[in-house]
């Protein structure tokens, strides 16, 4: 677990992601900040699996650095699609941890 969690509610970027993914609630990580759309910080933190998923992305950003992660993530989405993107596969695995 990270000792300091940065969470941004009603994030514009998360709203754009929600439109693109055609989902209502969105949490997305950019760097070390979790951006939320249509969900409160309180509700997000109640959902343990969801928090673990986003924490996995925070670790991935730490491992690769912002630019490399975003480049690889985008490339994997093109190559494998969102669901089979190795970063998403790993994050889903960590939900169960
Ligand atoms: Zn994810």
Report on this model:
The protein is an alpha+beta fold and 97 residues long. It has one domain. 60% of the residues lie in helices and 13% in strands. The chain contains 5 helices and 3 strands. The chain has helices spanning 12-21, 41-46, 48-64, 66-80, 86-95, and strands spanning 6-8, 26-30, 33-37. The protein has a 3-stranded mixed beta sheet with strand order 1-3-2. The radius of gyration is 13 Å and the shape is globular. The chain binds zinc ion. Zinc ion is lined by residues 53, 57, 88, 91.
Quick structural gist:
The protein has 97 residues and is of the alpha+beta class. The protein has 5 helices and 3 strands.
Q: How many domains?
A: 1
Structural class: alpha+beta
Q: What value does the average pLDDT take? A: 94
- Spans of at least 5 consecutive residues with low confidence: none
- Describe the biggest sheet? 3 strands, mixed
Largest beta sheet: what is the strand line-up?
1-3-2
Taken in chain order, the helices and strands follow as EHEEHHHH
Which ions and ligands are bound to the chains?
zinc ion
Helix content: 55-70%
What gap, in angstroms, lies between the N and C termini? 12 Å
Shape: globular
**Number of DSSP helices?**
5
Number of strands: 3
Strand content: 5-15%
Radius of gyration: 13 Å
Write the layout of secondary structure elements.
Layout: E1 6-8, H1 12-21, E2 26-30, E3 33-37, H2 41-46, H3 48-64, H4 66-80, H5 86-95
Parallel strand pairs: 1-3
Antiparallel strand pairs: 2-3
Helix pairs in contact: 3-4, 3-5
């Amino acid at each position: 677990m990270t000792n300091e969690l940065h969470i941004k509610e009603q994030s514009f970027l998360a709203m754009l992601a929600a439109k693109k993914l055609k989902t209502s609630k969105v949490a997305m990580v950019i760097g070390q900040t979790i951006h939320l759309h249509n969900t409160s910080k309180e509700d997000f933190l109640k959902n343990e699996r969801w928090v673990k998923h986003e924490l996995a992305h925070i670790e991935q950003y730490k491992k690769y650095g912002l630019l490399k992660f975003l480049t690889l993530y985008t490339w994997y989405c093109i190559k494998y699609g969102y669901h089979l993107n190795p970063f998403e596969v790993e994050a889903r695995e960590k939900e169960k941890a």
